[in-house]
Amino acid sequence: MPNGAVAHADPHGPASAAGFGAGGHDHAHHPALQHHFQTLDQQHEASTLGMWIFLVTEVMFFGGLLMAYLLYRVWYPEAWSEGSEELDIVLGGFNTVVLIGSSLTMAFGVRAAQTGEQKATVRWLLLTIGLGLTFLVVKGFEYYHKWELHHIPGPNFSFEGPHAAQVQIFLSLYFGLTGLHALHMIIGCAIMGVITWMAHKKRFTPEWYTPVELAGLYWHFVDIVWIFLFPLLYLVDRARQLS
Amino acid sequence: MTTTVLPRVNYLNVRHTLASWLFTKDHKRIGLMYLVVVTAAFALGGVFAAGVRIELTTPEGDFVSADTYNRLFTMHGVAMVFFVLIPAVPAILGNFVLPLMIGAKDVAFPKINLLSWYVFVIGFVFTLAAMAFGGVDTGWTFYTPYSTQFSNSSVMLTGIGIFITGFSSILTGLNFMVTIHRMRAPGMTWFRMPLFVWALYATSIVQILGTPVIAITVGMLALERALGFGIFDPRLGGDPVLFQHLFWFYSHPAVYIMILPPMGVISEVIACFSRKPVFGYSFVAFSSLAIAIFGFLVWAHHLFVAGISPYSAMVFSFLSFAVAVPSAVKTFNWTATLYKGAIWWQAPMIWVFGFLGLFLVGGLTGLFLASLGLDVHLHDTYFVVAHFHYIMVGGAIMGYFSGLHYWWPKMTGKMYSNSAATFAAVLVFVGFNLTFFPQFILGYLGMPRRYHVYAEEFQVLNVMSTAGASLLGVGYTLIASYLIHSVFRGRAAGDNPWGATGLEWETQSPPIPENFDETPIVTGGAYEYTKRGAKVA
Amino acid sequence: MAGHISPKSTYYTIFGSLMVLTAVTVSVAFVNLGALNFPVALSIAILKATLVILFFMHVKYSSRLTKLICGTSFFFLLVLFGLTLTDYLSRGWFAAPGGTAGAGTQVTIGPAAPEPASVEP
Question: What is the pLDDT of residues B450-478, one digit of tens each?
């Protein structure tokens, strides 16, 4: 009949068909292999593909805010200039270096997992978390400073300047973009914590280190977002402000 | 052999506890769990529609106040769009059938699949809470500045509900995409996949790329409403039309999420019940991808009279005409599939014929609206309402019912009464046309949408519409009754009651938890119907 | 099943390049290039992002599918930006019959002056 389904030996044998999730049979395969996959390779490819697709959703997620930014930058260049001037370029630059540094340590962490250097993996991951937390602390100071100056949009907003209303839009987008980014950093640090714990427990080998790799992809993505946010928010029209 | 006894161990009876359902990782059980929630949402949306239609039986606003009416049509839209049309075919039928169709044990990420159901339910609960607090009155489109500054309704709660539910759609799309890429059985190349799989793949593309944008847009709406962030506020120099751009960037492709999977169902059913391969397989497959991609280029046809630049409107009008082409390709190919086929008039096929006619009308009237000059006259009238109901109900819902009736014996192992099913399908078809065809005329004559009062000369057509809606209600209730009845009293359907091709029909009904005793190996194409006219008892 | 393992020197080189590019983008921001400041800053950011994607995220050594997915996400981002801007950049080109300004041009609230009306609850 159709499709000619020829028998193909199921690795677990017919006994597994009856008991869903029955763990009674002995496994010749890696303990991390999940039952609906045939091989560890297939599982790894599926996992990384899944993470990449998730990152696509993240790109579009930030994309909506970036569209709003783009429109109003075109419409209100003066307000964008005044708003950007209110941001601290030193802190922003420092955070940029910190975050790119954390991407480096993350890359080394993945590499250490690839080569089976368990202790190095833990060290690099801890360093990554440390740098991530540093970023968040600096961000916290920046936000606090904004709050002190009444620069947080809303009923308590107050700004001296001819384009105050549109500066409020700039700052709305500043808080929206950096806030969303910070939220992703916090989640990232939490994920890193879990991965570091797993590494500490010697769960990763050169055959299977997928969670480290996936966490790395996420972390690099969050770094890339900041690579764009920094010039878009902190470096608008700085040349004219000098004169 | 008529028996109500089902074969040995299957995914339904392998464990009976509530926990075994609530913590299941089995895509088949998750599909059924989605069926329960989506059906509840459909009933709820139907109740709101009933409220709307009852009010519109008379020209005066004598049933409910204007404010209540606004809430009724808004909640009807929210329930139907986000909790019925978007998930119905992918999350119910797709979840159930996709791994079976490609010879896999499950989807790529079963735990994420379960998570997507929980996320869906939580989103639904938030929206129900919003309804309990009086609902939203902004229209399901939430246009600013009304939604951000002036509406006194539960915008935040509904927004949160939609935001959360969006993640369910994203997770499903992600899961399906990876499943189709990586879990196909040996020998199943891309061009041996059933067209339903192509449809789900194309849908996943849309879910992945589009849904995040509405998520962030609802987020911006919430920030503006709750904290006074001024992104859409005209008093600060913001543009309310920006909200519309961002909203429709998702919401237009969303209609392709709603229609692509039912189109995939049509391909499956039409092949089986014509006993012929689908004509032009690769054209149908590529047209699904084309619809998914082109669907992202047309959104501003919803903004033609919102104040966008006429030059931009021309661009979007042209693109909107272009996106009709791949849909037309499918329609031609389905028709060609019927040609010289051996038509077998079973319930799933009756729904297919309903789909073909109604989707054609809905699609063609879309072109009316894509035409700039006509849209100036027709925008925000009942013509638009009729157009999208022809696509959504006449197209998507009929496709959904076709699939539900087609795969029901596989899902439950039981067969429903074909005569009851045929009667219900015809009743729904008649009721549907009676409800919505008058609305084309009403819209053309100038009756605006979202008004609870109207000019007296429109009453006759409105009464016809309400009468049709009553028939629809009866028809849907009938469907639920005989389907539920079949679970308890229906005869055992057997593994392949339709004599259909496809891997899902080569395993038992209902399937064992791991789907196949042994992983199948595929050696042929998807629709190798060689015995034309042969029917399986 | 291990993926491509980059030598440590690769990572250090990329990091160094990213640091240099960061310094460049900050310095160039203080040079008045007029309308070019924005495209230059964006180009540097794109270059930095590309380095992270290709080398830190290993896309250079990944499958064609991964590269396609990467490219697709940026393509659709550009669709969002580009098609929306076809509206905003062409507003005001068209003068409605009998009118002076085009329909839906940029919203302004009176002269470029003080507070907007107080916000209603």
Answer: 999 999 999 999 999 999 999 999 999 99
Radius of gyration of chain A (CA): 24
How many helices (H) and strands (E) chain B has is answered by 16, 2
Q: Is B454 helix (H, G, I), strand (E, B) or coil?
A: coil
pTM for this model (two decimals): 0.92
C66 touches A52 (CB < 8 A): yes
Q: 3-state DSSP: chain C helix, strand, coil percent, rounded to 5?
A: 60, 0, 40
Residue C103 CB neighbour total at 10 angstroms? 16
Q: Which residue in C5, C18, C86, C115 has the most chain A C-beta atoms within 10 A of its own C-beta, making it the best mutation to test that interface?
A: C18
Q: Which residue of C has its CA nearest to A90?
A: C26
Minimal Cα–Cα distance from A17 to chain C, Å?
Answer: 28
B248, β-bridge pairs = none
| Residue B10 binned pLDDT confidence (cut-offs 50, 70, 90) | very high
List the single residue in B297, B303, B311 with the smallest CB-CB distance to C90.
B311
Tokens of C32: 């008045």
The string of pLDDT tens digits covering residues B203-240 is 999 999 999 999 999 999 999 998 888 899 998 999 99
**Which CATH fold would you assign to the domain B30-506?**
Cytochrome C Oxidase; Chain A (1.20.210)
Task: Fill in the amino acid letter for B447.
Answer: M
**Dist CA B495 CA A233 (whole Å):** 62
Residue of A104, A115, A205, A210 to mutate, interface with C, max C Cβ within 10 Å? A104
Chain C, residues 20-39, CB within 8 A of chain A, namely 22, 25-26, 29-33, 37-38
Q: Mark C2-32 as b/e (b = at least 16 C-beta within 10 Å).
A: eeeebeeeebeebbeebbebbeebbebbeee
User: Phi, psi (5° rounding) for residue B290?
Assistant: -60, -40
Go through the domains of chain A in sequence order and give each one's CATH number.
37-238 (1.20.120.80)
Inter-chain contact B524–A4, Cβ cutoff 8 Å? yes
Cβ contact, residue pair C69, A106, below 8 Å: no
Per-residue pLDDT at B61: 87
d(CA B281, CA B270): 13
CA–CA separation, A172 and A164 (whole Å): 12
* Residue B414 dihedral angles phi and psi, to the nearest 5°: -115, 155
Distance CA B97, CA B32 (A): 11
Assess contact for A175 and B219: CB atoms under 8 A. Answer: no
What are the residue ranges spanned by the domains of chain B? Answer: 30-506
Contacts of B444 (CB under 8 A, 6+ apart): B378, B381, B383
8 A C-beta contact, residue A154 and residue A172: no
Q: Does residue B294 surpass a pLDDT of 50?
A: yes
d(CA B221, CA B193) in angstroms, rounded, equals 41
Torsion of CA A49, A50, A55, A56, to 10 degrees: 80
Assigned token pair, A203: 């769960």
| Inter-residue contact B415 to B490 (CB < 8 Å) | yes
pLDDT at residue A240, as a whole number: 78
* Residue in C86, C107, C120 closest to B312 by CB: C86
Mean pLDDT computed over every residue of chain B: 95
Rounded to whole angstroms, how far apart are CA atoms B159 and B74?
13
With a CB cutoff of 8 Å and minimum separation 6, the contacts of B214 are B162, B166, B246, B247, B249, B250, B251, B254
Chain B: closest CA distance from residue A33 (Å): 12
Of B181, B300, B307, the CB nearest to C104: B307
The region, left, alpha or beta by phi > 0 then psi within -120 to 50, assigned to residue C108 is: beta
Check CB contact of C15 with chain B, cutoff 8 Å. Answer: no
Name the DSSP letter for residue B514: T
C-alpha to C-alpha distance for B256 and B173, rounded to whole angstroms: 13
- H helix and E strand count, chain C: 3, 0
Query: Using a CB-CB distance cutoff of 8 angstroms, which residues of chain B are in contact with residue A210?
Result: none
